[in-house]
């Protein structure tokens, strides 16, 4: 199903709706690049955490944004985020970094620092971009926009299962963090999480990632 078409596809939605699985699968089927834009916010959050800079310390956060160098490098089938030439992929997926990324992503200077980088990554099209504001702000002229949502209970249950038995977090804790992150991401003034007016909305609560991907493919080749 590899496509010769040069499309730029965006997939926005809240945490845990299955965006990553579906975006990766869609990109693979089309022979396109997959770009996880949340990783970039996580990269800034990780650097702040390492330097013990808190989410309210705008002066030092600005310095990080001015000096950070982020890039994606494919390692096998996986995409790793490098910050200042160091592979930080193993460190950016913790709940602590999720919450810090969400908090700092509300700041205009943080979003500005990442805007051009994201647009440059999309300049050749043939890419699937996953995030919160892909279809609304970063690529308002994207060829096809999707918004993937799912109920809070289902998203929490999926995350709980993904963390496995070793996790110290209860289902209740995970649900609370998801609700908090939804609030942060959708109630912020800048580039809030919301579907673009021309987005195709898919509710993945009761369907599998494979079904969501097939539905997207059908919409693309309609
Ligand atoms: O997709 P993710 O969970 O890795 O994203 C982490 C945080 O980064 C998310 O809570 C909000 C922020 N983010 C954003 O503001 N805009 C994006 N396009 C992607 C992520």
Please characterize this protein's 3D structure.
With 222 residues, this protein is of the alpha/beta class. The protein has one domain (8-205): Rossmann fold. Helix content is 48%, strand content 17%. The strands form two sheets. It has a five-stranded parallel beta sheet. The longest helix is centred in the last third of the chain and has 17 residues, at 171-187. It is globular and about 50 Å long. Residues 15, 37-38, 41-42, 98, 101-102, 105, 131-134, 181, 185 line the site of 2'-deoxycytidine-5'-monophosphate (DC). 2'-deoxycytidine-5'-monophosphate (DC) binds at residues 15, 37-38, 41-42, 98, 101-102, 105, 131-134, 181, 185.
What's the short version?
The protein is an alpha/beta fold. It has helices spanning 19-30, 37-50, 58-67, 95-104, 108-121, 134-138, 152-163, 171-187, 209-220, and strands at 8-12, 33-36, 70-75, 78-83, 86-87, 127-131, 144-149, 200-203. It is globular and about 50 Å long.
> Going by CATH, what is the homologous superfamily?
P-loop containing nucleotide triphosphate hydrolases
Shape: globular
The name of the CATH topology is Rossmann fold
- Give the number of domains: 1
The biggest beta sheet is recorded as: 5 strands, parallel
Poorly predicted segments: none
Distance between the termini: 13 Å
Could you give the order of strands across the largest sheet? 2-6-1-7-8
- Gyration radius, in Å: 17 Å
Percent helix, as a range, is 40-55%
Name of the level-1 CATH class: Alpha Beta
Bound molecules: 2'-deoxycytidine-5'-monophosphate
Structural class category = alpha/beta
The helix count comes to: 9
CATH architecture: 3-Layer(aba) Sandwich
Question: What is the arithmetic mean of pLDDT?
Answer: 96
Query: What string gives the helices and strands in order?
Result: EHEHHEEEHHEHEHHEH
Strand content: 15-25%
